[in-house]
Amino acid sequence: MWDKLKNDKYVKDLLVRLLTVLFVAAIALLLFDVLTQSKDGRRQIVDMDGGSEYTQESALATQEEKRLEDILSQMKGVGKTSVMITYQSREQTETVFGSGDNNKNLMVEGVIVASEGAGDIIVKNNIINAVATVYDIPAANVVVFEKNGMK
């Protein structure tokens, strides 16, 4: 039986077509794999639970936001406050006398403040001046909104 199939032209043609399709499918999968990678060869991993990665920088940001919220809420007329700080990462390379390691410096880029007392222009101006002074950023990088009375 095997000899009959081996000599049959239809079976040989079918086998060649099957192998060709498998080869083309394998090449297509490899190309798809290569084309979906980012330029540096890494893939993005998406959390299915929607969680975010915990980093030292995010812990620092959260801690700084809490400290600023506490200080601002103690100012006269400010009331309950929420703060969001954005950072700009900046790398510094040490000079000849340094070890040559790259150090990352986080620099405050902007601050958003939501405060109950921000409806008063004087309180709003005091908040802007306080935040701009603490982080040594231009007042234009500090945005203050009146907080909604309902939480």
Give a quick rundown of the structure.
This protein is of the alpha+beta class. The chain has helices at 2-7, 9-35, 56-73, 121-135, and strands spanning 81-93, 102-115, 142-146.
Task: Give an overview in words.
The chain has 151 residues and is an alpha+beta fold. It folds into two domains: 2-35; 56-146, GMP Synthetase, Chain A, domain 3 (2-Layer Sandwich), CATH 3.30.300.30. It is built from four helices and three strands. The chain has a three-stranded mixed β-sheet, with helices on one face. The longest helix has 27 residues, at 9-35. The chain is rod-shaped, with a radius of gyration of 30 Å. The N and C termini lie far apart (81 Å). The model has no long low-confidence stretch (mean pLDDT 78).
